[in-house]
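Example record

One chain of 600 residues, shown exactly as stored in the release files.
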Amino acid sequence: MTAVAARAAWGVEAVTVRRGGRAVLDGITLPVPAGRITAVVGGDGAGKTTLARLLVGREVPDAGEVRRADPRRTGFLPATSGVWGDLSVAENVDLVARAYGLDAGTARDRGDRLLAAAGLADVPHRLGRELSGGMRQKLGFCLAVLPDPELVVLDEPSTGVDPVSRVDLWRLLSAAAAGGTAVLVTTTYLDEAERAAEVLVLDAGAEVYRGDPAEAAARVRGSIAVRAVGDPGPARPLAEWRRGSTVHALVAPGEGAPPADLEDAVIALTLERRGAPPVGAAPAARRGGRRVVEGVPADYPVGASATPSATARSAPRAPAVEAAHVVTAFGGFRAVDDVSLTVRPGQVLGLLGANGAGKTTLIRTLLGLLAPTSGTVRVLGGPPSRDARRRIGYVPQGLGLAADLTVAENLAFVAAAYGLDAAPEPPADLAAERDRLVGSLGLGLQRRLAFASALSHAPELLVLDEPTSGVDPLARAALWDTVHEQAEAGVAVLVTTHYMQEAEQCDALVLLSRGRRVAAGTLADVLDGTTAVEVATPDWQAAFGALGAAGLPVTVAGRAVRVAGADAGDVARVLAAAGVPGDARAVPARLEEVLTLGAR
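Predicted structure tokens for this chain:
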């Protein structure tokens, strides 16, 4: 028996956790074996964090069994990263080493090795609060695995982290699993969940699916029909959701195809689990312009937006945003460096880039919250001003909500700020929560409220900074449907996102790297001419590690290992030298690979 196989299998068996009479976890079973990556997927309030805390001894179940490793051999990365902001990188490592009782030599050796692998070796004296989001998460992972744990639990390590830093995080955790550590990772990113040996999908504390991510599609009772936006849809869909230029519908078996990826599978399985009628069994209806089925809540996933009117799409209108050669500097540092862009009415423009690329600084400059050092900015026909901001809806990264006010009070405050005659009513999914403090709501509901607040005064320009970070696939689909409805009504939309699958939702893209614009245009324009090498291998973790160790810009798409901008022959030689089996072939690049190349 190998050392990996000899280690204990950790996990939970039939665990239930209740709070206030509600089951946060309801009879959940999940083994977390050594040497493998196990993923838990779900939106805010699904129970992911509770399950993670059970495994590290920070929660106790009301029923069931929890098999934990010794606390001294357990690593934990909380959603807050676990990094002490007032300590330097080196001081964070030293504190954790002392807490686990590591001798100085061991702590120094492991710490140096981990920081080098995470790309943090050059910033040992930088304070935790001065690190970017991606750097903070990578440091948090280093702290979690510093004691060489048997079990490491990572709670949403990549939420809000840019694609480049996510690649680094996955390199670190795949190396930990390859060394025999049992790895549990919670995530809302379904492309990440596809890489796990086993995935558990949770919805409101209940199991939706558990097993191999590649087999989830086979569990969907219905099928998926895909059509272009504007084309007539099936007569009796259970639900529809927008994905870029297409609409996906859950229909009866045989009326469509099996789900093509984990995202569609999870949406369909979640709908079926939520007690929707058998697929195709209930009459379709229209409610508020959206296709729904009786018995399915109107906020899951909402129907695809109507075809844009000819007036909204063809009438010539002045740009909502014009930025020309904008520079925004802080001292000698140019956070935005000679960036130009245009956002037109009815257009969804996506602003993409790594943490620190300048996205939020550019948005604050366009809104007039920061003055450009040079260049020109025009918003809604003139320079940024208080009057122009009255015509803008803005959802910042921090959502901009008052946590100590109720839902209704937040909406009333926004109405007063914009001079509205009356406060808008809460959205349907928040009506029952109107008197609850916003701070007590889950992230998904807070995002719905932030959207409702931003739209309450019928803005002409909608600015969204990471609007769907941390929400489940159904809520993400609903929020994006709202975005498209606004665009199709003639509203200009500027959105930043770290979730690469959302790039297909945008009409055009602008990619930033180190403050500069490195690419712009449609998704096809941005990808044009860039190639990658895809490796077919039975051991993606070994291939991923070998190619990363060779300094190649390696990424993972599901379980397929890819290298952007490389030659297939060079990749094959690296794999052969490392003794890793695999076939390398040239393929078109993906968007995250373009970002990875731009960040180097």
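Notes: Residues 533 and 586 are 4 Å apart (CA to CA).
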